[in-house]
């Protein structure tokens, strides 16, 4: 029966990691995958996570199933992170949150909810966007349409083109936005632009959906929610997929959340009952450990403060690498202007390197970058900066 099955294409980013692992050159550098690395090139467990785990080990009394949406404490902690502790959305119970297996699980829950409950609407995704967005939405049977986002010339957001494209969307269509640290460009809208986007969604009756995978990696945990909160003030209905893979370093624990905001608590409860039905037939109920860690950290004032420092350390290190990268290229006499790298947010930047240059970097220098030229700045360290920049200078 399996004879007629043909092989699926390898995931381009994870495939690159495999190739990197096989590479025996000691000086190899991986700027492909989106995982935070510290100055030594490691992805350590956060100290606050270790402390929370120690507490959980002590107080855990059962491995019994969680409910379908996970624990209420986790749901509330997620909402406070998204909307702010005193948000009326929380007090009026307009939001409902389901713990999900990672940000990807949250996106898939959202996609299934959209397809089953909102019908044949289109999902507008930025061009470019995270490689998996198209796959997740089409797997749920939805059609995706791209809206302009990146201006290769100015290395900035092409905001007018984005607005013009989204103005073509039909009422009910979904607009997917990156909460902060747009993946792959690192370019986020400014506050007045968020406002304009929110007004457009309201006026055209589009459903905004936020993919929030890097809260804390741009300016700060609170600051990074600015765009979402502008939308939450203006739009009555909203979907959010959160991931805690990066900001808690909980990659393999698969911690995410799907949050739905409705006009009122009755509509929120009814719509959310459908989300629970969807989760029930996909994974039944979520894994407990990662979400328990996040809840423990966010609900303990001391741990929360310490976690914010840990997030700031990751954010600052990436920013420092951005500055050092631009400076090192300059010092090596590279004339091309890379200063845009310093203006961008989060782990990623679009380097502007061509496919040929990316291939040469891999073949000749053992420097791994995805084909689009997206670089994971988190893979840079003080130690690999010279060889990295020398390689880039050689292929420019
Ligand atoms: N959304 C974006 C924009 C991402 O970059 C990622 C991960 O890289 C995800 C979602 C998925 O996160 P998770 O690993 O929690 O599934």
UniProtKB/TrEMBL annotation:
InterPro entries, alphabetized: Aminotransferase_I/II_large, Asp_trans, NHTrfase_class1_PyrdxlP-BS, PyrdxlP-dep_Trfase, PyrdxlP-dep_Trfase_major, PyrdxlP-dep_Trfase_small
Residues annotated as domain Aminotransferase class I/classII large: 27-392
Keyword Cytoplasm: no
Names of the cofactor(s): pyridoxal 5'-phosphate
Alphabetical UniProt keywords: Aminotransferase, Pyridoxal phosphate, Transferase
Molecular function GO labels: identical protein binding; L-aspartate:2-oxoglutarate aminotransferase activity; L-tyrosine-2-oxoglutarate transaminase activity; pyridoxal phosphate binding
GO cellular component, one term: cytosol
Record-listed E.C. numbers: 2.6.1.-
One Pfam family linked to the record: Aminotran_1_2
GO biological process assignments: L-phenylalanine biosynthetic process from chorismate via phenylpyruvate
Family in the record: Belongs to the class-I pyridoxal-phosphate-dependent aminotransferase family.
Record's subunit section: Homodimer.
NCBIfam families named among the record's database cross-references: PRK09257.1
Name used for this protein in its record: Aminotransferase
